[in-house]
Design a protein that fits this description.
about 15% strand, 10 helices, 3-deoxy-7-phosphoheptulonate synthase activity
């Protein structure tokens, strides 16, 4: 019998590409960097009310087919060109999928959708996709689940998110304190917003935390603190929290914590009871609040893909093109009229 105590449940290890090497393979040009930085500034201006537009973060639950996402991005951008006076569109580009138990973990972890876990390939695909999106002039939003993956592509992200399952995590709050873009913090899975408010406050402070350098060396990093942390209302087990009273209460809670009373509503997840069609009902309610002059409502999120609904995960060649393999989404054809409604509400609110 062996008395070994080290790594007794690790089967094997593979080399991981470093962020520096990946950035050398897929560099960020000056024009792309300028596009990402402009997206960050515009989002900050909307969330701090210096820009009267509404932030709309739209896209699939998660990315499994880069080609389909790029087609979605092109159509979204083209449609929003006529709405740019009222809406600031941001593409939802989520590479990681948190799992309650097991399942497909996202493009980075398993890009071939077959359990092969070619993570180096997934990181390459993720960075290439963000470069292509930025070249379109479209800001990208992404959730940071793994606390090291951000070093590989965070320079191409204009809006970061901390999810409902990780909002209470100290390491994710520390990570957010050092991210270079504005970050949204979702309320907890129960619907509790206090954990998100606490996360915003924590991330605004400087922290020391272990991570990787761009060269792939383990290091202890010190952050400056992130002054652009915002609450995302996503509903929860206790019910939806997008209605006018919930938005007022959330704004009051932010103000009580000496935080800007500006927030984003996620039209999916707990606010739609995971029924993608109900996102339209949420949008209709938010349009009413916008027209009634609710100043705290600065943005929203929609889960949408080329084809509505979802399908079981499988190899890419067997899947229906443009349909989610994680949470069910609203079709893009059904989403674009909702953006028109939101733009009209913003314009009417300005006229009043």
């Amino acid at each position: 019998m062996s008395d070994s105590t080290d790594d007794i449940r690790i089967l094997r290890a593979q080399p991981l590409i470093t962020p520096w090497v990946l950035a050398g393979e897929l560099p960020c040009s000056e024009s792309v960097s300028a596009s990402v930085a402009a997206g960050r500034r515009q989002i900050e201006e909307v969330m701090t009310r210096r820009d009267s537009r509404l932030l709309v973060i739209v896209g699939p639950c998660s990315v499994h087919d880069p080609a389909a996402l790029l087609e979605f991005a092109q159509r979204l951008r083209d449609h929003c060109d006529t709405l740019s006076d009222a809406l600031l569109p941001v593409l939802r580009v989520y590479f990681e999928k948190p799992r309650s138990v097991v399942g497909w973990k996202g493009l980075i972890n398993d890009p071939d959708l077959d359990g092969s876990y070619r993570i180096n390939q997934g990181l390459r695909q993720a960075r290439k996709l963000l470069l292509d999106v930025a070249a379109m002039g479209l800001p990208a939003a992404s959730e940071f689940l793994d606390t090291t993956f951000g070093q590989y592509y965070a320079d191409l992200v204009s809006f970061g998110a901390i999810g409902a399952r990780t909002v209470e995590s100290q390491v994710h709050r520390e990570l957010a304190s050092g991210l270079s873009m504005p970050v949204g913090f979702k309320n907890g899975t129960t619907g509790d917003i206090d954990v998100a408010v606490d996360a915003i406050r924590s991330a605004a402070h400087s922290h020391w935390f272990p991570s990787l350098t761009k060269e792939g060396t383990p290091a202890i990093l010190q952050s400056t603190g992130n002054p652009h942390g915002y609450l995302i209302l996503r509903g929860g087990r206790d019910g939806p929290n997008y209605h006018a009273e919930a938005v007022r209460n959330a704004a009051a809670r932010l103000a009580k914590a000496d935080l800007p009373p500006s927030l984003i509503v996620d039209c999916s997840h707990g606010n739609s009871s995971k029924d993608p069609q109900r996102q339209a009902q949420v949008v209709a309610d938010l349009c009413d609040q916008i027209e009634q002059g609710q100043p705290a409502l600065r943005g929203l999120m929609l889960e949408s893909h080329l084809v509505g609904g979802n399908q079981p995960a499988g190899t890419l060649g067997e899947l229906r093109y443009g349909q989610s393999i994680t949470d069910a989404c609203l079709s893009l054809d059904d989403t674009l009229p909702l953006l028109d409604q939101l733009a009209a509400a913003v314009r009417r609110a300005r006229a009043d």
